[in-house]
Amino acid sequence: MTAKVSAGQPEAPRDDRGAAAIAEWWRSSITDIAPDQIRIRGYPIQDLVGTITFPAMVWLMTRGELPSPQQARLLETVLVAGVDHGPLAPSLSIARMAATCGVGLNNAMASGVNVLGDVHGGAGEQCMELLGDIVRDPDFASDASRVAAAHVEAFRAANGRYLPGFGHRYHRTDPRSVRIGALLEEAIGQGIVTGDALKAARAVEAVLAGKGRAVPLNIDGITAVVLLELGFPAALGRGLFILSRSVGICAHAWEQMQEGGRIKGPVPKEFTYAYQGPALRSVPQAWTGGSTAGKPNDADQLPDQD
């Protein structure tokens, strides 16, 4: 029997074995809630609101402790830089196309997020793994160039020539990487981070340049460097990129909804695609029973046959 509770008064939690079992079903060290109380990692939410920045909250949620303001600012650089790369990026164009199909904003955003996989969206995580392996190599401190060359060769032997985090199909030099790299150098000079991940990345750049062509860090690469410098695990790298890119996906889906349009495909309707199937043909007589069904009409005439 449930105890009666007056209007406006929160119901007291049950105190029995069943309630305890339910409470044990989900365990979390992130958020503690009770009537009139919300604590994030032990901090009352009202003490965080208006005090810390959103990147600091991301850090607190994923890492369990608050960063220094300088660490949070460094994290902010990659969250800001990764939000968008124009509607030709698959995640953004898909969100826009979905928005023209009559779905809600959340559905359009989910459509874009769902294509952020190993190829589109996963390069940062993969680069973190590569650079992390280089930094952890026992010989890295004494011979970074040789270690980087060995790891690049091993990575390519296992995965092919593409190296995640280096080079860009649009930019010879990624302006986002240049700016974040400069801010990272400042942070290294101030002792906020060690600089080991950046040293590894520069060593990889030198290896690639030594093969005849400069292939500098792109946004995925510099993001990987920053996240490694800040101590984030590689597996979390993709989640943080998705968090950033979701802002762009939301903006593009919303803009498309304001513009209107119905069922927009990837290209204007006056453009077509390369059909590679059979030429026009008739349904076999065994299926038509000798009727005219399946025979070409005036609009679809078969070419003359000998």
UniProtKB/TrEMBL annotation:
Keywords: Lyase, Transferase. SUPFAM superfamilies: Citrate synthase. InterPro entries: Citrate_synth-like_lrg_a-sub, Citrate_synth-like_sm_a-sub, Citrate_synthase, Citrate_synthase_sf. One of its GO terms (molecular function) is citryl-CoA lyase activity. Its EC number is 2.3.3.16. It comes from Shinella pollutisoli. Belongs to the citrate synthase family. Pathway: Carbohydrate metabolism; tricarboxylic acid cycle; isocitrate from oxaloacetate: step 1/2. Gene3D superfamilies: Citrate Synthase, domain 1, Cytochrome P450-Terp, domain 2. Residues 283-306 are annotated as: Disordered. This is citrate synthase (unknown stereospecificity).
